[in-house]
Every structure is written in C-alpha cells, then in structure tokens.
Amino acid sequence: MSNVEPFPSGASIALDTVGAHDVFCDWITIYQDHFGGGLPVLNDGYMVRFAADAFTRSVDLATGALRAMFDASKADFTVSQRVQHEGSFDTRLSVRCDGTRVELSGNVGRFGRRDNVFGLPVLETIERANEILAALGLSPFSHNEKNFEQSRTNSFHTSHNAVITRVDLTANYAAGSRQDAFRVLNWMSGQATQRNAGKNPINYGNGITWNEGSKRHYEKLYYKADELGMHVAQEVRDYCEQNGILRYEVSIKSKELARYDLQNMVTWSKVSPEGLRMDNVIFGKFSEVLTRNQVSVTDLGQIPGKLGLIARLYIDGNNPYESQPVGLSTRRRWRAKLLPYGLDIAQPIDVTRIAHRVRIIELQPLAAPDWYQRTAA
Q1: Range 283-287 contact pairs with CB under 8 angstroms and sequence separation of 24 or more
Q2: With bands split at pLDDT 50, 70 and 90, how would you rate the model's confidence at 330?
Q3: Phi (first) and psi of residue 56, to 5 degrees
Q4: Within 13 Å and on the Cβ side, how many CA atoms surround 221?
Q5: Which of 95, 131, 206, 228 could form a disulfide with 223 if both were Cys (CB 3.0 to 4.6 A apart)?
Q6: Per-residue pLDDT tens for 228-284?
Q7: How far apart are CA 218 and CA 213, in angstroms?
Q8: C-beta of residue 338 within 8 angstroms of C-beta of residue 281
C-alpha cells in the first residue's frame, strides 16, 4: 500500500476529467482461417527469442516498398508448446499456425519497445501484427466485406475474415502528482462501475480492479510509474512520476465483443457521428466511473430535496435503503441521482473517503508528448 496519507479528516474527492482521450490497444487476441492451407506450421514447435536487431525494415528491390524483414540467424530456438516470439526488450507475442489457422495474441504495440505508456489504436495494432506475420512467412489478418455479410447469418465464424476474441483498450490520465494519484485510487476504491452496482472493487494499493474474473469484461485503474519495468527510458519514467499518471484499462473478451459486433475489423473502422473512433466510443462505455463527481458540493445541504436526506443518511453510516422499504427500481434511481455527487450508495460507507468537504482533482486525459515514440526504433 502507498505511504501517501489520505485527505485530512477523510475529505472526499470530486474527479474532474477534462480534455481528449488518447485511447489505444494494449492487447489483442486474433485469428484467421485460410482454407486454402499451405501455410508454415508453427504448432507445438518452438519458442523463439530474437536478438534486438532480428526484425528490421528494408526496401524490397522488386517492388521498392519498405517491408519487415526477419533474420533467422539471430534467433535462439527452444522447445515449447506454442511459438512465442520475444522482442528485444523482454516483450513477447504468441503466434500459432497449423497450416490453415493463424493465431496471434499479445501486446503488439509493446513488442520491441522499451515501454507502452502510449500505443496504437486497434486497426494500427493489427497492421503492426501483420508486419510480424509477414516476417514469419504467414498470411496477414484481413477482412472481406462479402465474406463478412455471408458469415453474419451463421452462429459460427465460417468466413475467411479475421476474428478478434480479446481487445484491451486503455488511456492515461494525469492526476498531477503521485500523492494526488493515490488519493484518487483511495477514492475510487469506493466506487462500483455502472455495470456492477453493489460489487466491491478490489484494491491492491497502487491499483484497483473491477469485475475481476469476468468472462465478458474486466477493468482496472493503476499507477503507471510503478510498473514501467527495467528497460524504460529515464525521460519516460520521470514523465509518469511528475504527472502522477494513472492508467484505466478495460479488457473486452469474446462474449462482450460479440455483443457490440466488434469481433471483426470493419466495425473498428467506423467513426461515430461526433467524429470519434470506435476505440474511443467503446472505451467511453466502460470508463463512466471516471467521469462521475462532476457536480461539486461543499455542504450536503446543497443536495436538493429528499436526495439530500438520503445522502446525509449514507454519510452518517446508515443504510439509506433501510430508512423505508423501497423497491429495486427506486434503489437504482437513488443511486443514479447521487453518483454525480461522488456518492455510490450501493457501496458500504467508508468514512476515510467520505466527508462534507470536497476537493477537486482534475484527471486530465493525456495525449502522447511530441518526443514520445510509439513504434520500435
């Protein structure tokens, strides 16, 4: 647990998120069937550890195009159940091919880089994955709209298109300092997500998880500087510490991807009427817990009417649902109206987080600074 002290008298926090999100893909699991077969078999074969310069980009003399190249002489092979390709900075991807199906899983944007403070959107991540597949002699992940329309009527994916079975989306927020970042974590440990009312988040000290173990989606918020690893540049480490960077991640699994029709590449290429990429739209559906507390009050008397009475009961350590018999719909309505004040009455009261005084910490969504490099050198 952090040694940062909570607010004096247990004062609560009203989080104010401002600015634009730089949402990127932190993990992808994807496969594609090539029914013609004939692809190199990478199944129950080898684990491959690459030297730092094993993957390079060179000009193809035949076409003049710049493409990824792989030098097999700079690889150390050991027996393994599945081919796992390691980048030059202890990064790893799992790749498998039985001659027909190509599978890839891992943090593609992190591959061969010193850190992953900022990364690539989903489609750009797949493009990067295709460079790696090409260097291994495998066919790329692709999408054909005709095949897609034919497969939509089937209960199983029978087309030639790529199928995404897991995507982790993430964005960084600056709390301003390490101390304020841990105050936010302390506060957020008393907030359930909209989708999991009544379920307590798990607090690990420098991070919080929601919906852990779910087969659909799983969220976490954590202090980024504590998990940068040994290879990160000092400039990046200082940047994370000085800005008090918190990272919010949502891991979206196969069932949830299917719910939003996100198992295919074409949906990820769509843009919302507001001009937002699909990465930002989907991330926003899960990150509402960070956009609460937009209504600041310095006294509970400012909360109007019966809602103020419910808030005072909760602050005093009482269960507002026991003050009078109420149905489930009423409970949900009360909770929804008090969430903007930073009060989640579906959670047990914790006096170390709640008080009548409110302090504002602006969680500013971060864009990558000009000097930051998103791809491997």
Answers
A1: 283/21, 283/23, 283/169, 283/170, 283/171, 283/250, 284/21, 286/169, 286/193, 286/195, 286/217, 286/219, 286/250, 286/252, 287/171, 287/248, 287/250
A2: confident
A3: -135, 170
A4: 30
A5: 206
A6: 877 788 898 999 999 999 999 999 999 899 988 999 999 999 988 888 899 999 998
A7: 7
A8: no
Mapped onto helix, strand or coil, the DSSP state of residue 6 is coil
CA distances from 51 to 133, 280, 326, 356 (A): 17, 35, 65, 58
- Read off the pLDDT of each residue in 106-133 and give the average, rounded to a whole number: 86
Distance of CA 198 to the CA centre of its chain: 23
Residue type, 236: V
Contact 252, 262 (CB under 8 A): yes
Cα 240 to Cα 316: distance, rounded to the nearest angstrom: 38
- Non-local CB neighbours of 168 within 8 Å, separated by 6+ positions: 25, 26, 27, 28, 249, 250, 251, 252
